[in-house]
């Protein structure tokens, strides 16, 4: 993997659902890092007219496609977050496409000689540690995660808990991290940690 000087150039950013990865990624983007976002790549992988979306239609039926030909994310989310079997079927369609899109974006970022951050919610679940130089985990306790998820996505407690349970626990992710970013406090406290953390990377 290419490196500039002694600094790490490919950082894997992960954490639990609604732990604050996008908030961290936005800050890093404003401070000279290139962000490659798996959630954005997963939207590209199933955009209207794509082979990915056609496979989803074949497996999950017309009920998950809207009248304008785009994916009904809410309907598909309701199916996959409560059923492991269905989730694995979706992952098998989307993940290989996401990896191709992200690999191309990573190479483009490295060509700019900037540190690249791969924002991958399922980095540990999909055993992608070896694809990055270092893993940063955005941590909040499970209760805070559920609270923020319910508020952001307007979900019931039950729906939020089922989404959180569809991933490896946040405590296990914290254990596996090279660096832990604690986002259980204020945004100001988050940004202070990040300012210190990024000093040796830019
Ligand atoms: C089911 C879908 C349509 C729901 O869309 P929605 O807009 O509600 O959620 P969004 O894509 O913004 O994802 C929000 C978060 O949910 C979690 N999540 C998404 N997919 C999964 C999954 N398959 N397994 C576990 N957690 C997931 C991630 O933490 C992600 O950051 C969508 O999440 C999807 O296509 N998922 C499959 C692709 C995937 O695994 N994406 C995650 C990174 S590759
Ligand atoms: N320190 C904080 N204090 C209060 N709210 C916060 C804080 N950090 C993030 N949030 C809010 O919590 C929610 C989750 O944050 P964010 O969207 O960055 O998480 P994420 O890990 O990217 O989520 P996902 O896994 O769903 O993609 C958002 O509504 C965000 O505005």
From TrEMBL:
One of its GO terms (cellular component) is cytoplasm. Pfam families: CoaE (PF01121). It is found in: Cytoplasm. InterPro entries: Depp_CoAkinase, P-loop_NTPase. SUPFAM superfamilies: P-loop containing nucleoside triphosphate hydrolases. Its EC number is 2.7.1.24. It catalyses: 3'-dephospho-CoA + ATP = ADP + CoA + H(+). It comes from the Bacteria. The keyword Transport does not apply. Gene3D superfamilies: P-loop containing nucleotide triphosphate hydrolases. Pathway: Cofactor biosynthesis; coenzyme A biosynthesis; CoA from (R)-pantothenate: step 5/5. One of its GO terms (molecular function) is ATP binding. Catalyzes the phosphorylation of the 3'-hydroxyl group of dephosphocoenzyme A to form coenzyme A. Belongs to the CoaE family. This is Dephospho-CoA kinase. The lineage of its organism: Bacteria, Bacillati, Bacillota, Bacilli, Bacillales.
């Amino acid at each position: 993997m290419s490196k500039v000087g002694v600094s790490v150039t490919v950082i894997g950013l992960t954490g639990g659902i609604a732990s604050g990865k996008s908030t961290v990624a936005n800050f890093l983007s404003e401070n000279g890092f290139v962000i490659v976002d798996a959630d954005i790549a997963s939207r590209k992988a199933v955009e209207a007219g794509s082979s990915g979306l056609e496979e989803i239609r074949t497996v999950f039926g017309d009920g998950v496609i809207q009248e304008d030909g785009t994916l009904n994310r809410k309907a598909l989310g309701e199916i996959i977050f409560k059923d492991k079997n269905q989730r694995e079927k979706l992952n098998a369609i989307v993940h290989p496409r996401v990896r191709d899109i992200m690999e191309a974006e990573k190479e483009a970022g490295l060509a700019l000689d900037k540190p690249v951050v791969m924002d991958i919610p399922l980095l540990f679940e999909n055993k992608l540690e070896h694809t990055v130089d270092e893993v940063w985990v955005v941590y909040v306790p499970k209760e805070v995660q559920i609270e923020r998820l319910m508020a952001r996505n307007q979900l019931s407690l039950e729906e939020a808990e089922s989404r959180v349970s569809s991933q490896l626990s946040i405590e296990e992710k914290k254990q596996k991290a090279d660096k832990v970013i604690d986002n259980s406090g204020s945004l100001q406290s988050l940004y202070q940690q990040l300012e210190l953390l990024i000093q040796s990377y830019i």
